[in-house]
Structure formats: C-alpha cells, structure tokens
Structure prediction request, 1160 residues.
Amino acid sequence: MLKFTETLIPTLKEDPVEAQVVSHKLMVRAGLIRQLAAGIYTWLPMGLKVLRKVEHIVRQEMDRSGAQEVLMPAVQPAELWKESTRWEQYGKELLRIHDRHDRDFCFGPTHEEVITDLVRKNLQSYKQLPANFYQIQTKFRDEVRPRFGIMRGREFLMKDAYSFDLNVEGLDQSYERMFQAYKRIFQRCGLAFRPVEADTGSIGGASSHEFHVLADSGEDTIASCSACDYAANLEKATAAPAPAATAAEAAADMTRVETPTQKTIEEVASALNVSPAQCVKTLVWRDAESDAWFLLLLRGDHELNEVKATNIAGAMSFMPEPGDVASALGVQVGFLGPVGAENFPVDVRIIADHALKGAHNMVCGANEAGWHLRGVNWNRDLAAPEFADLRNVVEGDGCPRCEAGKLKLNRGIEVGHVFKLGTKYSEALNVSVLDENGRGVNPIMGCYGIGVSRIVAAAIEQNHDDNGIVWPINLAPAQVHVIILNPKEEAAALTAVDMARRLEHAGLEVLLDDRDERPGVKFKDADLLGLPVRLVVGGRSFKEDQVELKMRRAPEPIKLPKNDAVDYITAKVMEAQAIV
Amino acid sequence: MLKFTETLIPTLKEDPVEAQVVSHKLMVRAGLIRQLAAGIYTWLPMGLKVLRKVEHIVRQEMDRSGAQEVLMPAVQPAELWKESTRWEQYGKELLRIHDRHDRDFCFGPTHEEVITDLVRKNLQSYKQLPANFYQIQTKFRDEVRPRFGIMRGREFLMKDAYSFDLNVEGLDQSYERMFQAYKRIFQRCGLAFRPVEADTGSIGGASSHEFHVLADSGEDTIASCSACDYAANLEKATAAPAPAATAAEAAADMTRVETPTQKTIEEVASALNVSPAQCVKTLVWRDAESDAWFLLLLRGDHELNEVKATNIAGAMSFMPEPGDVASALGVQVGFLGPVGAENFPVDVRIIADHALKGAHNMVCGANEAGWHLRGVNWNRDLAAPEFADLRNVVEGDGCPRCEAGKLKLNRGIEVGHVFKLGTKYSEALNVSVLDENGRGVNPIMGCYGIGVSRIVAAAIEQNHDDNGIVWPINLAPAQVHVIILNPKEEAAALTAVDMARRLEHAGLEVLLDDRDERPGVKFKDADLLGLPVRLVVGGRSFKEDQVELKMRRAPEPIKLPKNDAVDYITAKVMEAQAIV
Prediction:
C-alpha cells in the first residue's frame, strides 16, 4: 500500500499562475506533475501511476488487436527523413540535433520513416503481411507555444502504430481493427468520446478519423448530427445543401452606395440596415505554386474553412496579406466584390460557397474604396460562379448524411487518430514485398496514434468538480483513499492499516493518508486527488464501530459498520470496473 | 500465444559483419534488435519482451525497497547543468540541443540535476526524508565509439535512482537497501554476478560498488579473493604488501651500462640478462593545476594504475607526451631513472610503488640517452622515496583483506553501480531541508544505476553456446518453444496448438513455430532463440503418441507420452523459476 508519508504528493492550495485549463491546474495542485521547462514535465509518483494505467490499457488492446510491440529509438538519423523529403518539409517542430561527429539527427516526433525502413530491410513476402507494429514511446515536438500542461507539451508519451498491407482491402481491415481497438481503449479509460471524420489533406480518397474526448475546454470543434452517427471535426464537417431559397422579395435594382469607412461585414450591414447574411464576404486566396488568384465568396455570417480552401486551391495556397491583395488587384481590402472582377489586373477564379447559391439582392464591395453595391443578383449583375463547400459548418446546419438531423457543435480534445496513409512512405523509401505472383509491390500503410499522456489530462478535463479530480475507476492511481482521521487514536489507526491491507488482499489499490495533519487538510487533499472511494477511520464514528465512506462522485458520505466496510468497498469497486 | 508467422522474428544464418562480441551477433541473428544508426537500435518483438522482463524485475525490486517511481524528461534545460557546473565539465558525450528559440538543452545522460531540482522545490522537512526516487527511462550518451551492439550503445534504457538523507547514517542505510535490492535483481535475472568495490574518484571516503556480470568478453577487469569475499575493479583493487624481500644476493656495485637502443623494459631486461621484475619502470606524471612533476616508479613487470596516480597527484594530473617530458627534464624517455633526479631542471616528487620497497640491485635509466644503471640500491645510491600503491594488481597478488587468499582476475560487464554521492549536487543547487532543530541542511545523496538494456546483452554473453542463446528462465521472451514439425500433418498441428493453449492456461508463455519450413530450419532457429524448453510435435513420435522435449541446456532431447507433456513442462518451468 502507498503511504502518504512515504510518497511524494506535493499538493498545493493555489492554482499555479501559469495554468489556464483545469487539467493543468489540477495536475499541478494534486502533485501529479511538475514542470521542468516550457512544455517539459516530470511525472511524480501519483501522476505516473495514472500514466501507467493508460499505457497498460493501450498495450492490452493493441496486443489483442494482433499488433506487435517494438521499441524504436527516440533519436533518428536525418538520412531517412531526407529519403521521405520530410527533412525539408517539416518545420521547426522537428527538433534537429547534431551529434559529436556533426551528423544530423532529430528527436523523433513520429516514426513513419523508421518503421518503413525496418520493414524494407526485414520483410520480403506477402506471407509476412498483414503486419502492424506499435510502440509506446517518448516523443518530442518543438511546439512554438507549449501550453495547457501536458496536453500540448513538447515531450510526451505516445502510442504509435503502423500497419502494412498488400492491398486496399487489407488496409481497410487493418484500419477497422485499429478503429475497434481504439473504441475499446477509450471505453476502458472511462471517457466520453467520439470518433469523428477528419480531413486527409492531400491524400485524396483515403479516410481518417480522430478520436475526441468531449470537454468544454477542448481546442478542437467537432460537429455531430442530432439524429444519425455522423461526426466530423470542423476542418472536415460539411452541411447539407440549404433548401433552394424562395425569393422573399422581388429582385431590386443594383445600386452603388457610399460606405466611406465601413469595411467589415458588421459595419456594412449595420450602415445599410441589412442582416450580415444578406452580405457577401469576399476573400482573396492565392496558390503560391501556380500563382493563381481566387476570390472566395461566403455568406456574411459564415466563416472560411481554410482547410477546404487549401484542398481546392492547392497545398501551397494561403490568404495573402491585405497590402499584397491591394497591390495585386488595385482595390483596398474591405471594398472587394465579385462584380467587375474581370477588370482586375490579374485573373481571378471566383468560387462561392454553396450557401450563396440561392442568394439574391446581395450586398458586396464595389471594387472601389468607399463604395459597396446592393441589390446584386446572380445571372443578371454577374455570371453565376463556381460553387463549392468553403465554410465552417454552424450549429443548426443540416446533417450531410441523414435527412432528419441538425448539426450541433461540441468542443473536443483529440486523443487518437487513425489514418490511411497509402503508399507515401513505402514508395519514397522503395519498400517492396513480393506478392503471390512474385511481383514486387509497395505495401499500403496505415498509421495510428494515441496521445497516452494527453489522455491523462483529457480525463481530468472531463472528470472534475470544484474540489478536484474525479478519476474514472480504471485510471485512478489507486481506488481507495483510506484516511486515518487522527494518528493519535491508536486503535483507529491500527484498524485503518488493517482495512487497507485487507482491501489490498482483495485486489484493490490503496493510498493510506497516515499524515499528522488536521482532518480538514486530509479531506481537501482527498477531494483534490480524486480517488473513487474515500474511507475515513477514526473519531466519533469509530467509537460506535463505524467508518465513514464517501464515493468521490456522491454528494454525501455514508456510515457503515466497520466490519462490513471492506466487503462493501470491494463490491462497489468491482461493480464500477465491470461497467467500464 | 505468439505465433512465429505473426511475429517479426527475422533470424539470420550469418553473423553480422559489424558485430565483434557474441551478444551483439546473437541479438541480431536471433532477430531481437536491428541497428538504425551507430549505437542506436530498434528492439524487435522478441527482444523487447526480454527487455520488459528485466524492466519488470527491476521495478518490482525497486518498489520493494521503498523507492518511489517517477518519470523525468529526456530533454533537460542547460540552466540546471550550469548550476552544477557540469555543462562545462561534461565532454562531448553530452548531446547538446538547441530548441527552436535557440535555448540550450541536452538529451539527458543522467538526472542528478533534475532530481535535485525537484527535491529543492518540493521537499522542505526532515519528515519527508529519507526519500529515494527512481525512473526507468531512455538515456543518450554520445559515445565516441559506440560498439558491441546495445552493450555500449548511445541510446539505452537505464534505471537510475537518487536517494536523499538527512545524515550519513541515513545514507548508509539507503545505500545498503539499494545494495540488497541490486543483489535480488541480478539473482532474479539468473546472472552470475559480483559486486565489486569501485573507485570513488575525487569524492574522498565515500563508497561505491559496481555490479559485474562475469563474462570473458567483459570490458572490465575485476580482482577477487580466492578465500574471502573481497572483490574490486582493477581501478580500485589493491594487493597485500609483499613480504619483505630477503636479499637473495649481496648488494652489487652500481655501474653504468650502455644500452644504445634499448628503451623498453623488455629490451633492457633482455640486453642485460635480468628479469623485468629486476628493472624499475620510471614514468613521468604532471599535475596541470599546480604544475607539479612526479616520477612514478614501478617494478618492470607491473602496470601503472592511472586512477591511483590521479588520486595521488590530483584530479587534473596526467602523463605528458614523451616530447614534453624530454624538454622539461632534459632526458629522453626510455632512459629516465630516479638516480640523480635532483639535477632535473624542474623539481620532481618521486613516488615508488609498494612492490619496490624491498627491491635491491635494481636496473634503471641513467638519465642519459643510451645508458642505464644496474646494481642500484635504496639508501645507498639514492634516498628511499615515498611509497604508495600505484599499480594494477596482478593474478596471484595477496588479498588486501584476508591473510589466506590470493587475488584472481576475471572479466566483467558492469551492469549496475551504487554510489555515495554526498552533498555535491545538493550544495551546488542549494537544496535545503529543515532538520529536527529547524536548521537548514543539504541532504546527503546517493545515486544508483542499472543498465536495463545492457543486462540483456550481458545475460547473453554469459548464457550461450555455439548454436545460440541460452536464456535464463526469468529473462526468456517465452519459456516454451512449441514446434509444429510439419504443418501438413493436421492432427499433430492441432495437438501442438492445443498443447500451447494448455501451457498458457498453466501460466507459461509460448512461442508456436507454425511456419511452413523444413524441420532443420525450425530446430536451428529454436536453438538460436534460446527459449528454455523446446517441444516438438509431429513425425514418427507423434504416431506413437509421443512428443519430443528438449531443454535448451540439456545435450539431448527426451520423448514423453503426449498426454503427460504439458504437466511435465509446467513442473519443470516452475521448478526452474523457484530456484532463481
């Protein structure tokens, strides 16, 4: 059993000033972690116990899925990253290292190159496929702005897995096996989570899912349907096409209106007394590779989805600075619009979001500083443009998959990612295995990550109250927190130790608070630490042969005859574990 | 159960060309590891299982000793290393890193600074002592010449522990607890090992022990007594003073002899027809700090122990280049001697090894190129010098601790080290805890390392034969290697799988060779992999309801009725585990 007096549990009364999110505050206050440098943390004994529990669940489920555990090095030679061309492409997040002989290495943020090299050198035949290799290992990503404690740290523990298959059907099966393993992992961790569709970037057609733990503090927005199981992250989520608008009012004449200082949608809408939805937001986009220019049109109340814009315009495309736009198009940003765009000094391709398809009597910039147009209508004042999905979905959008549902938005913390990689790395590194016909083929890869340390923080974000952490049963550093109310009450103290021993013999893990501290301090620390069961031995109850039991999630303690407590607690814990 | 067809076990027939020692050869050939870069290895599934077994034993015994597990970062900020002054002192083995903001970090080769900083910030009172923190973690040392596979790799897995005590008595107890834990760890690993006294360098008086696995290929030499339990590494080992020599011959006259080309002891002894033991080896040593010069005298058949020389002459002392010696003393190296040393241009302090105390009629250099002296005697031809222990012990030296024993020399592989650190780091980092009287004191530290990955290699160095690895029972990746002799014999194949399952239900770990390969290939791989028990199912024996069992350490297989085999194997394995 763990004794409080023999374990470093440096609890704090105050929130650390640098902590913004609740998991960071509570992990420091409960003595689970301590910062060593920005984004770099030491795991103290109680924190490490939680981390190992997550690690254990992940390992068991990965093994059950048939994946093979390996351990790759943290330090990787640059040569491999040059083969995949990521040495040049990867930005400053890649921590580059020079060894004593001035050879280039990096502290691995991910291991596609290393595992692909291993497969290239050690697998020859389709008979050795499918294969899925995983590791649980320390990674480093040199985040520009590490934050939120271990949630977005620089050094972290990750489970990464890489599957190799002979063909697409094999990849589909490997992917599905991982998908199911991930569901079991997060279920066993006791987390409310959601797998959501994620953008696959430049790899067309392949699928990708993120696993999000739902929590208000999450950095990511996820959209999910109220009726069916559609869910996607904001980058990827699409809305059903809005029903064709019925013209509520007759087409007005197109007129020029003076808007000397009104540039934003809000300013223009307010000055002209229309709703932002009536306005057209005109954004400029440019593909650096082809030097192509785009006008992207959105309903004034909608936001551009940059991932979707990039998927349309090219991987190297982006929104130029206002000054660059003004000098290229000859119009000041804030007064841009699609009418007369053919007169810009450069060719622009006009793409409007689907939501503008049925729009009429629109307000947009007049391409002249200080002026806007109103009463603008497609096909009369300008040709109907190309339409595409360009925007972030909003709460209440129709579900793209079912007829009945509306989208709702939630915040989520990404804790896992499954991804159909395809042959990107097996081609770049020239991996070839012989198929049944003796022909060499590039294996098709999938990659699968879980943020092991991040799960600890995510679990707290989702499971806490004003007093501290409320651990899910399978992640708690121990299940039972036994408090000796007053070490000077010898009989009670001896009974507490005896009960702790009997709980351990029943297979439970126990933290015994044997400190010479006031009861109030011990209760506060127990709430902060968040073990599922608190058992208090001593005081008046003890004289009546009773002990006090409080489940962390319950509002009030209950009293129990002391002779029944061990059996009762054991049954309660087993029951909770069985539900998970 | 592990199936061979579903596990990456890339065995090789040939030794890898780069491998020099047997553990390196066998780890690669048995498919336990693969090299990624010099001194950097990936652990494949079977190798990782062994590594995890070692890790598990280490963790259990550390926990049992009362140490608390933590997990410190691999990447450490330079500031801490500057506080301890090791940022400047540590050489190129320290892998220095610059992050994206150009701040200095290192990939930790050890964690004294980090743990001391943690204690400084989180422990305040003597009530929190003693405390012993450990971690099992990936370390990096940028070895100038990585070699012997994982034995002297750059990235490796280490258990490091750091104890903090209020006073010397506390440190002694913490040290002893670690010493006993280490003995249990290496015993449970099934290794023949020896704790030996080690040099403590500049920290006077403190003790230090290394734990060596005995193996002919070991890089270290250890001396141990044939009679008592004295053992020390060569750096530290001392010999009993030789009995005072009885002058076998009368004192001869001192004469000059011409030795035009004879410089080495061998050349001089041969030219003058005396034994090397009759000659005096004269070495020059210099302390860079004080610019003091030393003549170190040894019996011609003895070797200088540089650690002992440094301990006498100072931490910054060393043997200068021959050219520098010649210009400082005015005599060519090879013809130096103690007679007339008072005429050297610089003052020299003459120190002779104890073994020269009773010497007479010695041969030594005449301090003139081309000339030696013979018949040199203390107190007549020169003053008797200061005597000290300067040499490496040799086989047959008397034990310094008991009267009866003689020293013998063995080769060893250092797998553990326990060290009384003292207050070096707690002073440098200003760690202060309040003692019972409310006074701040620097805690006294001990540090304790185990090379977790190195143990895997050391176990192989000590346990192998011409055919492969012979795993100690508790380190084997699995205990039983079940071979399906011929997958086409369906009944036998089914029986093999069934037996493997039953062995697993009995608590054993099983590797099932289900490959479609010739029996010879499977037998060779089984020997190479070295699991303790090999069970062959199929062929003629199977028709007679028998299976073939071979213990890896036994010369020949035996036959057993197939219905008895599972119980028999289970009993054998349990028995072996009980002995460890």
About this structure: The longest strand of chain A covers residues 407-422. Chain A touches chain B through 51 residues (CB under 8 Å). Residues 90 and 360 of chain A are 45 Å apart (CA to CA).
